[in-house]
Amino acid sequence: MSKTILIVDDSASVRQVVSIALRGAGYEVVTAADGQDALKQLDGKRIHLIISDVNMPNMDGITLVGEVKKLPSYKFTPIIMLTTESQEDKKRQAQAAGAKAWVTKPFQPAQMLAAVSKLIMP
């Protein structure tokens, strides 16, 4: 049974690149354009991991992490932040909110897949 990953990014091209890499590695992919859109996707379906941008309209990634952690069904879902941000305070905010990893754009698909496989339990 394949694992499902939710990709949250306001850039369609980033969603596409990440989706292709993940699907190529055998994962199911669900996408959302921002934090609010992502929360709508969390409607009870099984999501094994969330990959989220930090800077997005409507709801940014760090706020999204906090909101996801309030949802009983998704409280323990690991979240990777995928962002151009490399500021330490942003990283600390994301970690404090509950993010498990931080991948900086531009990323190598292999680097992303390594982070994903560490966080998704077989």
Please tell me about this protein's structure:
There is one protein chain. A five-stranded parallel β-sheet has the order 2-1-3-4-5, sandwiched between helices. 42% of the residues lie in helices and 19% in strands. The mean pLDDT is 93. α2 runs parallel beside α3 (61-70). It has helices spanning 12-24, 35-41, 61-70, 88-97, 109-119, and strands at 4-8, 28-32, 49-52, 79-83, 101-104. It is built from five helices and five strands; from the N terminus they run βαβαβαβαβα.
- Could you describe the largest sheet, including whether it forms a barrel? 5 strands, parallel
How many domains would you count in the coordinates? 1
Order of helices and strands: EHEHEHEHEH
Percent of residues in beta strands: 15-25%
Number of strands: 5
**Helix content range:** 40-55%
In the CATH scheme, what's the topology name?
A: Rossmann fold
Which architecture would the CATH scheme give at its second level? 3-Layer(aba) Sandwich
Measure the end-to-end span. Answer: 10 Å
Strand order of the largest sheet: 2-1-3-4-5
- Spell out the CATH superfamily: Response regulator
The top-level CATH class is Alpha Beta
